[in-house]
Amino acid sequence: MEFSLKCKASVFPCEVTIDEDNGRYMLRKADSSGEFFNTPEELARWVFKNWSLDDFDEIDSFQKMLKILESYLHTKTN
Predict the structure, then answer these.
(1) For position 23, what pLDDT does the model report?
(2) Chunked in runs of 10, what are the mean pLDDT values of the chain (78 residues)?
(3) Residue 43 in contact with residue 11, Cβ under 8 Å?
(4) Please, which residues have CB within 8 angstroms of residue 25's CB and are 6 or more apart in sequence?
């Protein structure tokens, strides 16, 4: 699954990719740099720690993404 969110700090969207079939867990930040993770849980923890509602123009989309990411924190185990 992929999320593309319009952020206030950039004309380019922030993007989150969780591709469990291919083991790809990554995101692109407002400054266009990226982060790569070994698990969707790591990615979810990073998002909850580093991004906030105030960073984005599309509040509903951001909240929907958080709800999905939260499920990785509660249902998946290492």
Answers:
(1) 96
(2) 95 96 97 96 97 95 96 71
(3) no
(4) 17, 18, 19, 36, 37, 38, 39, 40, 42, 43
Q: Exposed, middle or buried, 62 (CB in 10 Å: 0-12/13-18/19+)?
A: buried
Mention every residue, 6+ apart, whose C-beta is less than 8 A from residue 56: 5, 6, 7, 8, 14, 62
Give the per-residue pLDDT at 75.
62
Query: What residue type is assigned to position 78 of the chain?
Result: N
Q: Coil, helix or strand for 34?
A: strand
